[in-house]
Design goal:
CATH topology: Arc Repressor Mutant, subunit A
Oligomer: single chain
Strand content: 5-15%
Number of strands: 2
Helix content: 40-55%
Order of helices and strands: EEHHHH
CATH architecture: Orthogonal Bundle
Number of helices: 4
């Protein structure tokens, strides 16, 4: 899914940024080396981060059990 049309930021890029520690849409933009243009994507990126951040590291937790 494309989250930011202006900067061509898709779900894969948001997920990659999250796996590197991004917790906000601003952090995703910095990770991608850009900044907001119109800002319409901010909510979509934040929603994706809220969905993906809790799942990060689950495979490590399962392996430890």
């Amino acid at each position: 899914m494309i989250h930011c049309v202006c900067r061509q930021i898709n779900t894969a890029k948001v997920d990659q940024a999250a796996s590197c520690g991004a917790k906000t849409a601003n952090c995703v933009m910095k990770f991608c080396g850009t900044r907001f243009n119109c800002g319409q994507c901010r909510t979509s990126i934040d929603d994706r981060l809220q969905a993906v951040i809790p799942t990060l590291g689950e495979d490590k937790l399962l392996a430890a059990e």
